Amino acid sequence: MTHKDPGDLPPTPSLKALTDQYDGILIDAYGVLVDKSGALPGAAELLARLDTEGVPWLVVTNSASRLPETLAAELAALGVPVPAGRLVTSGGLLPEHFAERGLDGCRCVVMGPAESTVYVERAGGIAVMLDDHTDADALVIADQKDVRCLEDLDRAVSLMLRRFDAGKRLELLLCNPDLLYPVAPGRFGFTAGGLAAMLEAVLRERYPRRDLGFLRLGKPNRPIFDAALRRLGSARAVMIGDQLGTDIAGAVGCGLDSVLVGTGVAPAPGEPWPVRPTWYLRSLTQMLDAGA
Questions:
Q1: Which of 162, 189, 216 is the last residue of a domain?
Q2: Would 258 disulfide with which of 53, 82, 241, 251, CB 3.0-4.6 Å?
Q3: pLDDT in the model for residue 107
Q4: How far is CA 68 from its chain centroid?
Q5: What secondary structure letter does DSSP report for 84?
Q6: Do 101 and 76 sit in the same domain of this protein?
Q7: Predicted confidence (pLDDT) per residue in 162-206, tens digit
Q8: Contact between residue 218 and residue 176 where contact means Cβ atoms under 8 Å apart
Q9: Which of 122, 121, 139 is nearest to 130 (CA)?
Q10: Which of 188, 216, 244 is the last residue of a domain?
Q11: What is the pLDDT of residue 291?
Q12: Does 7 map to a domain?
C-alpha cells in the first residue's frame, strides 16, 4: 500500500512530545545529523538537549566503513559529538552473525575500506584478497568506498559463479543495504546496496530456481533494530530518519513509531510514500522550535 504525498502530512512533533511518549530515541546519522558538508541544522542541539533531560538515545547507522571509534571522531569533527558507545553500526552486527552461522575462521572477501576488513576480522573471519582466482567461503559487501567498481565487481561475480556452479557454499553478507546517501544538498552518492543489487541480478538470471542473495544486516532489516533495542533496554522507542525505505520502513517492520525528516534522502515532492511515518519534520530545528 502506498500513501499520497504530502497534502496529508503526518503531524509535526515537539521534542517534549517524543520524550514524554517514548523511553528512548534512535537516530540515523547521515541525512539527519550530518552530511558530508557538516552538521545539519539542529543536530548538535538535539543531542545536547537529550543529554540534559536524561533521555536515552542511540545513533543507528548502516555504516560499515568506519569503526565506531573512527565514526565518533568523524561526527565530532563535523560538529556533532556522538560517543562511540552510542553508535550501533551495521558492521558491528557481524560477530553475532558469524557466531550463528559457524563462520569463525572462514575465508572472507571484504568489499570496502580497511576498517571494513577490521570489522570482519573482529568477527572471526580471515580476510583474503580479491583477485582473478580468489576462493573464499564468504563475500561481505561492507561499503562502496575503495571498491574499484567494474574490476572488483567482475572478480566478485566470478567468485560467486565459480562457487555456486561447483555446488559450494558461499555466504553473501551485505552490511549496508542503502542505495543512496546524501553528499550535500542536491548531491547524492551510490552505495553498497547498489553493488549488491547488481550482483543479485546476475544470480537471478544464472540460477532462476535457486534462492540466492545477500543477507542484509542494516536498516530496514531487523538485525540492526533488534541490536539497538537490546542496547537501549526498551522496545518503546521512536526512530528518526530521512529515508522511507530504510529508516521508516525498518521501524514500521519492527513495530516502532518513526519520524521522517525532510533532509538527506527524503522522498521527492509529489512521489507516493510506500510507508507512512508517525511524524514528519522539515528539519530537526522544526521539532526543537515546536512548543518552545
A1: 216
A2: 251
A3: 98
A4: 14
A5: G
A6: no
A7: 999 999 999 999 999 988 776 777 788 888 999 999 999 999 999
A8: yes
A9: 139
A10: 216
A11: 60
A12: no
